[in-house]
Batch of 2 targets.
Target 1
Amino acid sequence: MRPLVALYVALLGCELAAQMPPEYELAYRRCAVYIERPADGGREVGAGFIVDRRGDSLVVATARHVVQDTASRHAPPGHAVLYNGGPPLPYRLLHLDREDLAFIQVHAPRYTVRPAPPCREAPMDAPVWLLALRAGYVPMPFGFDGRLLARSSNGLHFWAAMTGADQGDSGSAIISHQGVVGMLLGGSDEVRCLDIAYIMERYQTLKR
């Protein structure tokens, strides 16, 4: 990255960070879930976010590759940790989608959370924040600031964003001032994201 571009991105991040009230961020943090499972040669870590409560369990959306070894199509059992910490909770796989999307179910009868309403659309170049969980079970102090870039050539349900994504951030919610706008799938300076409209439409189909 050229020095002037790097400086612009850094200044843009500082400006956007000041626009997010702490209580706004906390409301979304409580929806964030840390996910871990065994993988070849070690472990796979990622994130997800709560989309619904089903009886005494929580339904969590995450990236499919977080819970499934895509090379072998094997989905080994793993565990999830909620925002309030506590012991790792085993999850049950509910659905593996044809896109890079999965839903898991976590037994958590005492965890009170009211998932924030998703935003169906967000204008291009809108400021967004990545709600990543990088440091073990502890969410980042602040979401990384970026912006929506463009619709992706991969399909209608995907778009690209400029964020500070890192390994283990897959499945993290991406939010704007209007609410959740998508899910991180992967990338580096420019990452691929799955639209929240598709995620929620697939979940509504799953509920029926």
Note: The mean pLDDT is 79.
Target 2
Amino acid sequence: MLKAAAVLIAVFAAGNAAHAAAPALKPFTATYEVSYRGMHAGALIFRLERDATSARYTYETHANPGLLARLVVSPAAVERSVFEVDAGGVRPLEWRLDDGKSGELADGALHFDWSRGAVTGRIRGKDVRLPTQPNVQDRLSIQMAVTTALLRGQEPGALSLIDDHQIKRYTYTRKGEAKIESRLGPVDTLIYESTREGSSRLSRFWLAPRFDYAAVRAEQIRKGKVETVMELVRWERTGD
């Protein structure tokens, strides 16, 4: 469920230097209800925090699985990304996934060494060593790269994502605008789709400027059928 969330809420990046230098991200907490193939799977809580001393951000996802989902997802599961934001956008520094269970078969950790141009770590019990490249993101920082770009009035185009032991390239395409009935009432949204060449999966997002471009609804579609749906049920600003 954490992996689905990381893929489901991504979108944008590019640049106006004057705009780019200004702080864009503000801490928040967002709660989503998740369903899989029509069955309630529980909730995911996303929390963004900023360290005023280092100016670094921490973005975390916590799972609150439903009764059936607890068979595969632990309520102790947590995914975390530490990153910084500069004129070029979001730059990840560390990423970690703990599935809340014993062993490391579903765990992961990455360290981004931008000065040496290398990403190192361990995912699912195997070592990882990949080169850095412009706008490469981890599974959580990509969400904030999208948000940052949108807040700066930029379009994203393509973003690179480290998923398991590979760098994958996703293209984000704007599909229009819509006012939808959400769990928080009627909301104006921008609709985007994310695709990857060679993949049978497509992700669709309804992003709300009212909530700093958080998705009020997100769908993951496989072979034309909707599999996973996330609906925003709570969003609150938590500080500066």
Note: Helices lie at 2-8, 17-20, 141-151.
